[in-house]
Amino acid sequence: MAEAAQADWLAVEWLDGHLSVWAMQGSAVLDSCEGAASVDSLESFIDALSSLTADLQVPRRLPVFVAGLPVTWSEATPRPVPCDAIAPDTVAVKTESFDLQIIPGLRQREPSGLLQGAETRIAGFLSLNKDWDGVICLPGATSVWAQISAGEVVSFQSFLTGELIAILGAEGPAPKDTALDDTAFDEALSDGLSRPERLAGRLASLRADRALGEMPGPTAQARLAGTLIGAELAAARAYWLGQTLAVIGPEAEASLYMRALAQQGAPATQADAKRMALAGICAVRRGKAD
Amino acid sequence: MAEAAQADWLAVEWLDGHLSVWAMQGSAVLDSCEGAASVDSLESFIDALSSLTADLQVPRRLPVFVAGLPVTWSEATPRPVPCDAIAPDTVAVKTESFDLQIIPGLRQREPSGLLQGAETRIAGFLSLNKDWDGVICLPGATSVWAQISAGEVVSFQSFLTGELIAILGAEGPAPKDTALDDTAFDEALSDGLSRPERLAGRLASLRADRALGEMPGPTAQARLAGTLIGAELAAARAYWLGQTLAVIGPEAEASLYMRALAQQGAPATQADAKRMALAGICAVRRGKAD
């Protein structure tokens, strides 16, 4: 029986409550797995990682390059922007099970901001698209708009849009598997963009329609997303107007932003979030090895 | 042993997850009790009411005038505005334990809105302040601005402000029992009022500051409340600018709105939420008896 190829390191992303793991041999992916994980400390992160990788039969104390760990657990001080998109170094934390190499996040003073995971997706995109200048939009629980120039993250702005959609949408029946109501999304988007200050009022109106059972779930969900993304586009206008744009995110969320931007005459390149995360982790590891 | 006075009806308000009960004899309050209640149907409401009133030793099938029941359980069709502030009629629902008289809510088409409980607090305020014209602000999980003229609710506008403060504030240490950081509240309020479209971005900045542990809990909570109430005041400007104003709400929330309005040169009368609720329920009952 031929011996299976043996992983010599793991690439790991922890973001938005979701753990993604790639078993790597050099730059080749041998295997991967992912899952939701309830994690609130470095210890519980190690537990979740051990449990998720049990089937991969990786040796103990394998090097693990990990993106997205909250600064409060990891002691990996976030790097202040502007700075190189690809982290030049990692913070080593040895545990019984794994030798962690923690990729630090990014910190901005004004407006106050913190990236914990998104920065590595950005690094991945730039490692695959050399000399790309423009603005990258990263939808997620917290959406991020990052201005990129000469391989550096110059500035960024975050919005709680995704989390608000999840919290406020959870009240109604979840229409996740049904098609989006495009018309309702487009109308709410246009309305949210032109009168963003009415956001909290619109959310209350949506709530009323739901309480009265007068709006189908998918329509309500589309209006909720359109309203919140519209308000975000209004506030982030300086980031996308007249810029070269890329959207990196999970397919469902990214497609909403692509649609919204296209309607404003601002077409964007779309890139897959997981693929960018892996490329970013690999780029950081390569940089360290150099 | 003298016989205790016997209640001949109950006044009940269910609002924001909180059940308030007054045991009444005519217009006199014999006793009262209140508590948080997890209620999601008419049956569970009856259970919660039975449990809360067990100590009051009220007879079975007592008449109960109740405000705040969601339309989906009660079949009490909300009344369309504009309409009399004091509901002229109730919807009778007989159960094994109580004879309910359900006070209907208010419905507005454009912008879509629904009041389920706030309308009775408004009715109470107007029953105590005859011929009062102006705008009543009712802070709560959903805050409401209602325009009152000649005893009618002409129009209203709701905002999810209170619920967003609760959801987003729950992340940090709860500073409920500590004093508000006035300076942080005032700054965030002013900022929220002047640039309401930046709301989702400001919430993300607050999140970043908390994640970095760089902001004390009370300061973060004050900034959160100031930001959201500022954005609400911006959107509700037509409701408060140059108007006679009253604020009806729980003390903690009402005092934030009083402070915010005073800073805009718009002083308001403050009235206690529970007292107005009871007065409103009594007014509806009196109207029915006439």
Count of the separate structural domains of chain A: 2
The appropriate CATH architecture of the largest domain in chain A is: 2-Layer Sandwich
Specify the helix fraction band of chain A.
Answer: 25-40%
CATH superfamily grouping of the largest domain in chain A = 2-keto-3-deoxy-galactonokinase, substrate binding domain
Strand fraction of chain A: 25-35%
- Unreliably modeled segments of chain A: none
Shape of chain A: globular
Number of helices of chain A: 10
Main pleated sheet of chain A = 6 strands, mixed
CATH top level of the largest domain in chain A is Alpha Beta
Average pLDDT taken over every residue of chain A: 90
Protein name (chains A, B): 2-dehydro-3-deoxygalactonokinase
Organism (chains A, B): Sulfitobacter delicatus
Pfam families (chains A, B): DGOK
InterPro entries (chains A, B): DGOK (IPR007729), DGOK_C (IPR042257)
